[in-house]
């Protein structure tokens, strides 16, 4: 039995520099929690970029040694690689196209593509230093689409799984990318390609059959005498962690403070990374419409909005940040009173205890992305509602809407519908809240993060088994 190697652009760790001394702390992300059960087992490893650009070999070695103790292996990126491969190709080509923002936000710079290819090769070289035939390799996300085939060329028999955390677009959109064939060929190096939803699977299969073109039967592709399976594995969260966080003294203390400040209002929560795909501006429009056309809610509702800075060197993100600042400023200037502020806006990341206190006290969570692979915030809100109350308003464009059908499901472009959903949510009788929330909590706990990891891993071994059976026929 070989070992398992996890690969993602970022390692699940935060590295802090202090006068040439590097300190490491574990990251709290959902992926890190879920995959912790795998990479922390004997002999298994996780390969990725540690999140800092370090050119000095002695510093690289110092970080590598510390990572080694955590079963983590670094791939170092230069500043130029970071700019071109990560901010360039990954975040100004793949991210917008895959989220259906192709025309407005995409520039197809050949140098971005060159770096994307060379960084994927760089990852391959580090993988090859550690991988052996018989190993299982699980590659994550859109930054590493070429990696499955690059590894396959060198290690034909190794087992490779690939999971895409963002949506896969329709083939009409995907084919806009000048390097679409190379990207598909890269993904097809895997044995199993996983997505959050069946729609993503369908879109991927239609790109493969139209663009490559290759034979596709049901969810199986025949590719160079191998088969590749595409399947949906909706990602879950560690729901127990979010439920038990609400019981911690620090969280309860913060929750009491929030309740005190917002004692006379219905608190609506909005939490996202800064990203145009998250629908923050449309959400603000819906809230503004509520205050404008339904003045009875002025002074009765408040929007608590956390926007976590992200990719803030990319021009479109800087612009979005300015637009949000301006919109929030306008709404607050227009509607605030001496003792009430409509929007409590924070442009920063908050500690997990604050996040939990907000999840457990907000009467409504407003999660309205324009397009989202899954969206974990809505699942975390549900997991934190240990009293079974609260209302989730969820965009139908989030992968999570396929599972969380007891939420109030809205089209984020329809600001009137979103406004109406807010009204329905703040007036929802407790009994209806509880009926819906119990169902939501059931879905979130049944399909949690360990269920996701186990399902993907067993899908991967089944695919390999199927391939071997076909080869011996
Ligand atoms: C990508 C896909 C898919 C947020 N603010 C704070 C904070 N967070 C944490 C949340 C949540 C995570 O960040 C955000 O996850 P999402 O799933 O909502 O969104 P993306 O970052 O875009 O993730 C997405 C996901 O990958 C997994 O496959 O669901 O569709 O786009 O866990 O809790 N955490 C802390 N402070 C904050 O201020 N501590």
UniProtKB/TrEMBL annotation:
Which Gene Ontology cellular component annotation is one that this UniProt entry carries?
Answer: cytosol
Q: Which GO terms describe its molecular function?
A: alpha,alpha-trehalose-phosphate synthase (UDP-forming) activity; trehalose-phosphatase activity
Specify the pathway: Glycan biosynthesis; trehalose biosynthesis
Renumbered to this chain, the signal peptide range is: none
Keyword set, alphabetical order: Glycosyltransferase, Transferase
Q: Which residues cross the membrane?
A: none
- What chemistry does it catalyse, as a reaction equation? D-glucose 6-phosphate + UDP-alpha-D-glucose = alpha,alpha-trehalose 6-phosphate + UDP + H(+)
Q: What is its EC number?
A: 2.4.1.15
Q: State the top-level EC class.
A: transferase
Q: Which GO terms describe its biological process?
A: trehalose biosynthetic process
Q: How does it assemble?
A: Homotetramer.
Q: Which family does it belong to?
A: In the C-terminal section; belongs to the trehalose phosphatase family. Belongs to the glycosyltransferase 20 family.
Q: What is the protein name given in its UniProt record? A: Alpha,alpha-trehalose-phosphate synthase
